[in-house]
Amino acid sequence: MSVFVIAEAGVNHNGDLDRALALVDAAAAAGVDAVKFQTFKAAAIVTGGADKAEYQKRATGAAESQQEMLARLELDEAAHRALIARADQRGIRFLSTPFDLESLHLLTGILGLDTLKIPSGEITNAPLLLAAARSGRRVILSTGASTLDEVEQALAVLTFGYCQPPDAAPGLPAFAAAFATAAGRAALTAHVELMHCTSEYPAPFAEVNLRAMDTLRQAFGLPVGLSDHTEGIVMAVAAAARGADSVEKHFTLDKTLPGPDHGMSLDPAELAAMVTGIRQVEQALGDGHKGPSSSELRNRAIIRKALVAARPIRRGAAIGPADIAAKRISGEGLSPMRLWSLLGTTAGRDYAPDEAIEP
Description:
By secondary structure, this protein is α/β, with parallel strands linked by helices.
């Protein structure tokens, strides 16, 4: 199965629709499967006094609040419609991450998206998770900064939302009960993919922990991908080699632009190189069967050695260790695996040095 590659445009449009459309074009040109933005109302997701993250301060300074910064990065409904149309035109999928209930309704109830990406920071936001599941949409859930128990709790909320009627009373016991049912697990399998993530920007390589993808897959039996926050493309390609079902990576048109995410994002050339690397890894993974490939079969007779006369051998002479050598020849000959079965036998004919020994 092909790795689903998501180019995370996020807020790298800086609130400019033309730049956002150019990001869609760049993502399509790089060969990704989907381009993803972020949908939010700043006042609904952060208080006026909330501080910025350290990486945001490094990128944008500390003078303005987080709410002020995010307000400049909102995209309205018209912008979303223009981006969806451009993505359709360019042959890639449009995705977005809702951070609040109004934005979730915009994406599902108004714009009709069939898949939602829930970010790591919302994994404990049970009302948002419940609304996402009750929309009936597929959910890609990032798990950065989470324990396995927290991932299970989030999945339990989603299970309840998918399986219980809208008037069912929510709550932790009800979520756990839904998660424990076979119907609940079937609903998760049908609707949910997990993404391992390290919620630091950029994420240190030593903290990526790609093996956690295996842990998530074994614990929940769901598809697992990587939302990669490291610098460069190595981790994304490595995740593909480790069996990631999807890979998500931030990208920008210009790393020097002002804004919280540009500096840690890939540029268009790097994004294209990442996609190429992932597709090459997909081809290289193969089917797991160990045997010679078609190209190897053509080379096998050339690279392998055969038994030849190490010196002149007379017909009727007993063959000893000094009479036989293993060398490459033109064509196929007797395998050196047969050496010991020849020792002590009688030569059936004369052999000149380097002449292939006949069985």
